[in-house]
Design goal:
alpha+beta; 17 strands
Length: 501
């Protein structure tokens, strides 16, 4: 959770919402029907226009800021190499120079594209993949969206629907799940431009799938990789839902696009009979070895029911049964009785102004939401203030609470939570858990990483899973990370991924 330097990040989002919303989460593959080995879109221009390049160049640094920045090092160089190689199949100018491929330092499963040849995938999604063909398939799908100009086609609709924060849209569906944007827990789990995401049309998704599979086959890769990466995403979504403890809680990747599980068989079927067999599994695993996994400590870390930020030196805990997702701008908190987030804004020592800005941010200033009163208190030695506003949503009254902490004369953090009217107290234990940590505690927070190990004689699923750097779901995490199930057999010499510190 890097902290925004000012309170205008909503405005920054709006400047590139049309581009990002047309491209974010573009990996939501809508079905594969590769009936042709010709990868060029009918009527495709031979190269990108100057306008497209300008649009992409303007949005690129803003997207980097929204998604944790670019991940650098050998893994990033490898992803860029594979991405540019698969982009060569698009026929869109000199793909090696026309495309900019970025590995994002983000702990969510995501991939997207914007005009001008800018292609993105997160390190978390790369870690979920099993081989180079799957990486090429994901990036090829995004190249397909660029080649077919899908972002431009969706730009106007995206601008018309960029209603982040509007009270009627957010609050009416907070507890009932039927608003245009959906449950607050879902949108808070998303970052920046994802909050404004619109789906591609089904025909656009199918066309991008067609192109992605054709690119795979023409490059010599196994075209079935599109289907197998969908299988991994479906398994990860199921595990995320299991960890959240409710089938009503949809993982952030799946909340904006259809469940990939329903498309696996079609993807595999449509790849049948196409040439290509290269997967480069061992090369892929060797090249991603050591890549950071999960939260970057510089952005804070979710560890069970506790969030700890070693840079800003604080921690808090959520109530039992609640689930957290660490995003670029906020930490989301989601449970059956309420939703919320922790974030920050500019602070100049005036808590009343800070409070009103926090409430205004819910509506992007379009509607005034004011707490009945602002109460002052102290939490574990930290000056704090809180207030609740009763808001009538489309399906009944809800309570919106802001609980703010003054860490210094120039730094404040706050929770914003939404519950059914009269139920705001469910978060009291969370509010009172906020505390500072010392330098020793901060230094103890370490990044997790992917560790590729070779199976030895005597290794079992259980023994390998026990090495996963988590306190819960060790086996389930290990199986999903390696596309295995509980009946899988391990072979001596086989390479598998585990997560370590």
């Amino acid at each position: 959770m890097p902290i925004p330097s000012d309170t205008n990040h909503h405005n920054r989002r709006s400047r590139f919402a049309a581009l990002a919303s047309a491209g974010a989460l573009a990996l939501a593959l809508g079905g594969c029907a590769a009936t042709s080995t010709t990868p060029v879109v009918p009527g495709q221009a031979p190269q990108m226009s100057a306008e497209e390049r300008q649009l992409g160049a303007e949005a690129h640094p803003q997207l980097l800021a929204e998604f944790g920045g670019a991940y650098t090092g050998p893994q990033a160089a490898y992803v860029e190499q594979v991405g540019k190689n698969i982009a060569m199949q698009s026929g869109l100018g000199d793909a090696r120079t026309a495309y900019t491929v970025t590995l994002l330092n983000s702990p969510v499963n995501n991939a997207f594209a914007i005009p001008g040849g800018y292609i993105y995938t997160t390190r978390e999604l790369v870690a979920l993949m099993d081989n180079e063909a799957e990486l090429a398939g994901v990036l090829g799908h995004e190249v397909g969206h660029v080649a077919a100009r899908h972002s431009q086609q969706r730009q106007q609709a995206a601008q018309q629907n960029s209603i982040l924060g509007a009270v009627g849209a957010i609050l009416s569906g907070v507890l009932f799940g039927n608003s245009q944007i959906g449950q607050l827990g879902q949108q808070l789990a998303m970052q920046g431009s994802q909050l404004l995401t619109l789906k591609y049309s089904r025909s656009q998704e199918i066309q991008a799938d067609d192109l992605g599979i054709a690119y795979l086959s023409n490059a010599g890769y196994d075209p079935r990789a599109m289907g197998t990466v969908l299988q991994s995403l479906a398994a990860q979504n199921a595990l995320d839902a299991q960890r959240m403890g409710s089938s009503n809680q949809v993982p952030e990747w799946a909340s904006t696009h259809p469940d990939p599980a329903s498309r696996v068989s079609r993807a595999l079927s449509e790849a049948q009979g196409l040439p290509g067999s290269v997967t480069n599994k061992d090369t892929f695993l060797t090249r991603i070895d050591g890549m950071m996994y999960g939260d970057d400590p510089k952005q804070g870390v979710v560890d069970g029911d506790t969030f700890i930020h070693p840079v800003y030196r604080f921690k808090f805990s959520v109530p039992s049964g609640y689930f957290m997702v660490n995003g670029t701008r906020a930490v989301s908190i989601s449970g059956q009785s309420g939703k919320g987030q922790l974030t920050a804004g500019s602070y100049n020592g005036d808590m009343n102004t800070y409070f009103q800005n926090a409430f205004n941010a819910l509506t992007d200033g379009q509607q005034q939401v004011t707490p009945s009163s602002i109460e002052r208190t102290t939490v574990n030695g930290i000056p704090a203030a809180y207030g609740t506003a009763r808001v009538n949503s489309g399906n009944g009254a809800v309570d919106v609470t802001v609980f703010a902490y003054e860490f210094s004369n120039s730094q404040a953090f706050h929770f914003v939570t939404i519950t059914q009217a009269g139920n705001a107290g469910v978060f009291n234990s969370m509010y009172s858990s906020m505390q500072r940590i010392n330098a020793t505690q901060a230094a103890a927070v370490k990044a997790r990483k992917i560790d590729v190990v070779t199976v030895r004689s005597g290794d079992t699923l259980s023994s390998l899973a026990s090495r996963m750097a988590y306190d819960d779901y060790k086996m389930e995490r290990f199986l999903v990370l390696n596309s295995l199930d509980s009946n899988s057999s391990l072979q001596v010499g086989q390479k598998v991924k585990i997560v370590t510190y």
